[in-house]
Amino acid sequence: MAKPQDVNDAEFGAEVIDSDIPVLVDFWAEWCGPCKMIAPVVEELAGEYDGKAKFVKLNVDFNPQTSAKYGVRSIPTLLIFKGGAPVGQVVGAVPKSVLQARLEDAMTV
């Protein structure tokens, strides 16, 4: 089963911007309670969308450049990229149905 991949500022372009398939980026931090709440949902969706979308996690404490570039001010923030640009966003720990609906919407853009 597919799992979210950890990425850093240096890898972001190659793993997210240059991806041929949509990418959900989970901006998170180890100390963030809501981030821990949504992590299992992101893992579950990564398995369900294996081959259709990529899932990555970016720790904001260690990767401030990418976080700042995309205006991430609170976590968890989940951005959905398609064709190298953000096309969807979810902020906070949300139910799986909400995140899945946003992902589906972004994939059809």
Automatic annotation (TrEMBL):
<feature type="site" description="Deprotonates C-terminal active site Cys">
    <location>
        <position position="26"/>
    </location>
</feature>
<keyword id="KW-0813">Transport</keyword>
<dbReference type="GO" id="GO:0015035">
    <property type="term" value="F:protein-disulfide reductase activity"/>
</dbReference>
<dbReference type="InterPro" id="IPR017937">
    <property type="entry name" value="Thioredoxin_CS"/>
</dbReference>
<dbReference type="Pfam" id="PF00085">
    <property type="entry name" value="Thioredoxin"/>
</dbReference>
<feature type="site" description="Contributes to redox potential value">
    <location>
        <position position="34"/>
    </location>
</feature>
<dbReference type="InterPro" id="IPR005746">
    <property type="entry name" value="Thioredoxin"/>
</dbReference>
<keyword id="KW-0676">Redox-active center</keyword>
<dbReference type="InterPro" id="IPR036249">
    <property type="entry name" value="Thioredoxin-like_sf"/>
</dbReference>
<keyword id="KW-0249">Electron transport</keyword>
<protein>
    <recommendedName>
        <fullName>Thioredoxin</fullName>
    </recommendedName>
</protein>
<comment type="similarity">
    <text>Belongs to the thioredoxin family.</text>
</comment>
<feature type="domain" description="Thioredoxin">
    <location>
        <begin position="1"/>
        <end position="108"/>
    </location>
</feature>
<dbReference type="InterPro" id="IPR013766">
    <property type="entry name" value="Thioredoxin_domain"/>
</dbReference>
<feature type="active site" description="Nucleophile">
    <location>
        <position position="32"/>
    </location>
</feature>
<feature type="disulfide bond" description="Redox-active">
    <location>
        <begin position="32"/>
        <end position="35"/>
    </location>
</feature>
<feature type="site" description="Contributes to redox potential value">
    <location>
        <position position="33"/>
    </location>
</feature>
<feature type="active site" description="Nucleophile">
    <location>
        <position position="35"/>
    </location>
</feature>
<keyword id="KW-1015">Disulfide bond</keyword>
<dbReference type="GO" id="GO:0005737">
    <property type="term" value="C:cytoplasm"/>
</dbReference>
